[in-house]
Amino acid sequence: MKRLVVKFGGSSVGTIEKIKKVANIIKRLSESNEIIVVVSAMSGVTNELKAKSDLISKNFDNKELDVLLSSGEQVSCSLLSGALIDLGIKARSWLGWQIPIITNDNYTSSQIMKIKTDEILNFISKKGVAVIAGFQGISQESRITTLGRGGSDLSAVAVAKFFQTDSCEIYTDVDGVLTTDPSINEKAKKIDKISYEEMLEMASLGAKVMQPNAVQTSMIDNIPLHVRSAFSEKSGTQIIPESEVDYKKVVTGIAYSKGNAKVSIVGVVDKPGVAADIFEPIGKNNINIDMVIQNTSLDGKKANITFTIKREDLKKTLSLIEKNKQKLNYNKITQDDKLAKISIIGAGMQANAGVTHKMFRSLADEKINILAISTSEIKISVLIRENLTQKAVKALHKTFGLN
Ligand code: ASP
Ligand code: MG
Question: Do residues 5 and 38 lie in contact, with contact meaning Cβ atoms separated by under 8 Å?
Answer without folding.
Answer: yes
